[in-house]
Write a structure and sequence with these properties.
The chain is of the alpha/beta class and 568 residues long. Strands 5-2-1-9-20 form a 5-stranded parallel sheet. The chain has a 5-stranded parallel sheet with strand order 11-18-12-13-14, covered by helices on one side. The protein has a 5-stranded antiparallel sheet with strand order 23-24-27-26-25, sandwiched between helices. Helix 5 (194-206) packs across helix 15.
Length: 568
């Protein structure tokens, strides 16, 4: 007898499960229900339609019901909403949204992939206005694009500084609009640490996006929004508003069917993606997974994890087990001229979880300097102390940050340590990288710190050092120093250090930096070799400090701790 499998929801989770089931079972009756107009589309590409990077909205649709049937023999019913699940009868109730008709269908196995809904707080006055949008599907982005084009919108506001919010603000700006980004926390892109995200803040600001951090949307008016920043209320002109403050898992069906809900609000599943009913599975944004590094429940609303979950659920239906290994949290984004990627735990989350850890922050060339397009990559590696186990990493630069972070993701998955990473053999060509890649360099720095070969101070503490009159030695050459330096720093170039060592006091802490950290590390080693003990290398050095300080200096009007910024 043919197995009848019903799938609720399409896109990454549902569509991937359906395709995998067909590959495993040529005879199964597979029916997929999708309440929207499109069953399979590239949701990660949606914001890029605004700028014309994706010119035709139709190209966002990956598979139609007709193609699903012709190519896979899978029946897809769009505009069809599953309104109830009856586990005891192994039935679902379906409503045809075009005709209003309701009917029932039976199943042997049921896969829930209903996704998530955009958060649209009813407490915000004006949230129901016609110029307020969210971006979850092709229909949403078409409606937003049509509104901008037909209403001649020139100013838009994006609420939320996560992936969708940042990408939407970027593409609105690229489309020629004035774009304002409002974020409730002190930073955009929360997977990145505060010290690293300042580089992204600078890029957004320099690219013309109005940044309003630590600000809450309070009211949407006809041609403006009101935001609260501390005790201050600001009005920002906006003829279109995009809500991108997050999503909540769609669990209505599961709750009403009596299925268990997890700690994070998603549908509770086991290692095989089975719900509390063994004949019902849940995958994608609606399902609760777990963080592999922390061993805690969590959700990761990304296409990659959804596809892996879908495959795991389909495989279990046909005899495989134990596919759910959780997530480590790998992601990447392009923000104007910069590429940013991250994986695993950031420093903040690792410390919040009570993990003893340290970081290695390096700035290194992403390819040989003689090659066109060579530029610095900012790389932060988080590792456990004293084991050296790699916990996470973040990379920002103009080059292939995704490649570097993919290396770290693989190391985390395999339980790798600093010792493993520093000796990891990677591909090398001058046009692609350096003989000792930035990931290897970060591991070497981390190993030196783990072995207590030297001590470091993060860029976040440099302002306090400058303002307190700490003894700071800048070992760059004189012309570099004159082009911009930390206020009150003492310039003793590395090339002159051995001859001028007597200028450095021995009885107080001494902080050393150069441009990116390599020369200052050599200086620290030299000084330690001559009996200096109270030495600290400034992590990130002058370029790292400049990147960290710039955004807040510009937006808060505070006194810089540098004489001039120098990002070249």
């Amino acid at each position: 007898m043919k197995r009848r499998i019903i799938i609720v929801g399409g896109v990454a989770g549902g569509a991937s499960a359906a395709a995998r089931i067909r590959r495993l079972d040529a005879d199964a009756q597979i029916v997929m229900f999708e309440r929207g107009e499109h069953v399979s589309f590239s949701n990660c590409c949606l914001p890029y339609h605004l700028s014309g990077t994706v010119e035709n909205s139709d190209s966002l649709v990956l598979m139609t019901p007709e193609r699903f049937w012709k190519q896979y023999g899978i029946e897809v019913r769009v505009q069809s909403e599953v309104t109830a699940v009856h586990p005891g009868k192994k039935q679902v109730t379906v409503r045809n949204l075009e005709t209003g008709e309701s009917y029932t269908e039976t199943y042997d196995k049921l896969i829930l992939a209903p996704g998530a809904n955009p958060i649209m707080p009813r407490s915000i006055a004006g949230i129901d206005r016609e110029h307020v949008f969210s971006i979850r599907n092709v229909t949403d982005i078409k409606e937003l694009k049509h509104y901008i084009d037909t209403r001649n919108v020139k100013k838009a506001a994006v609420i939320g500084g996560g992936f969708i919010g940042v990408e939407t603000a970027e593409n609105l700006k690229m489309a020629g609009l004035t774009a304002a980004l409002v974020e409730g926390t002190e930073q955009i892109m929360l997977p990145f640490d505060y010290d690293m995200v300042q580089i992204l803040h600078k890029e957004m600001l320099d690219s013309g996006v109005e940044m309003h951090l630590s600000s809450m949307l309070t009211e949407i008016r006809e041609h403006s929004i009101l935001i609260q920043c501390g005790d201050e209320i600001k009005e920002i002109e906006a003829d279109a508003v995009v809500m991108a403050i997050g999503v909540s898992p769609e669990t209505t069906l599961a709750r009403e069917a009596g299925l268990a809900i997890g700690e994070t609000g998603g549908i509770l599943v086991n290692k095989n993606f089975q719900t509390s009913d063994p004949d019902i599975y849940a995958v994608g944004d609606a399902a609760e997974s777990f963080n592999r590094l922390l061993g805690r429940p969590g959700r990761l609303a990304l296409a990659g994890p959804a596809q892996r979950q879908a495959r795991g659920a389909a495989d279990h239906i046909y005899g495989s087990s134990g596919a759910n290994r959780g997530f480590i949290g790998s992601s990447c984004i392009r923000i104007f001229g910069l590429n940013a990627a991250c994986t695993g735990l950031n420093e903040k989350n690792a410390k919040s979880a009570g993990i003893s850890c340290d970081i290695a922050y390096v700035l290194a060339a992403d390819k040989v300097g003689l090659m066109p397009g060579s530029s610095y990559m900012n790389f932060k590696l988080v590792f456990e102390v004293p084991t050296g186990r790699i916990l996470g990493a973040q990379a920002i630069g103009k080059g292939n940050t995704d490649k570097r972070i993919d290396v770290i993701a693989a190391m985390i998955t395999m339980g790798g340590t600093l010792a493993d990473l520093k000796d990891l053999e990677l591909c090398y060509s001058p046009v692609f990288g350096t003989a000792r890649d930035v990931v290897n360099q970060a591991a070497l720095v981390g190993q030196n710190l783990l072995d207590c070969r030297y001590r470091q101070v993060p860029v976040s503490e440099v302002r306090g050092l400058v303002e307190s009159g700490a003894f700071i030695v800048d070992v760059r050459e004189e012309q570099e120093f004159q082009a911009g330096h930390l206020k009150n720093a003492h310039n003793i170039p590395l090339s002159q250090l051995r001859q001028r060592m007597q200028e450095i006091p021995r009885g107080i802490p001494v902080y050393v930096h150069c441009r990116t950290g390599q020369r200052s590390y050599n200086a620290v080693c030299c000084l330690q070799g001559h009996g200096y003990q109270n030495l600290w290398n400034i992590s990130g050095s002058f370029l790292g400090v400049s990147l960290y300080e710039y955004f807040n200096d510009r937006t808060e009007g505070r006194e810089p701790v540098v004489t001039e910024y120098n990002f070249k």
